[in-house]
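Sorry to interrupt, but I need a hand with the structure work. Can you supply me with one protein entry, sequence and fold together? No commentary is needed, just the two lines. Leave the record below and I will have a look.
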Amino acid sequence: FRFSTIIICIIMTIDQIQSIISYSYPLIQKYYGKGKLPIPKIDTSHKNTYAMHSGEPEATGEHAASSIAEYYKGTIYLYLPNIKNEEGLLRSIIHEYTHYTQDSELFAKYRKMYSYDEDPTEIEAKKNEENWEMFSQK
């Protein structure tokens, strides 16, 4: 285990995380529907966005401690060291799955037109996060 894995294991075990994903992700897919591309896989093997994009496991940067998840090239990346509980995990999956269902050309256009908080694709993803309890095992 890397140090970052140990931290998340104290909060939620890898088995608990996988159990939440296995239970909830099919429900999320059914509820929000399928996009134009194949259903994204979920990858939990990177500790932050810098490690994922660089391929260097120990890479870090300005947002390393706050990067939670991203949808990139057909995969939802979850950065477990920064996800503290089931709510955070489900909100992250829902948020990134929403981006998967959105029109990629519109998504790119809005990125150039709006700030993050004013981007309609981000507003929709954040709104959908509010449904996280619908997909909880509790």
About this structure: The CA atoms of residues 95 and 120 lie 13 Å apart.
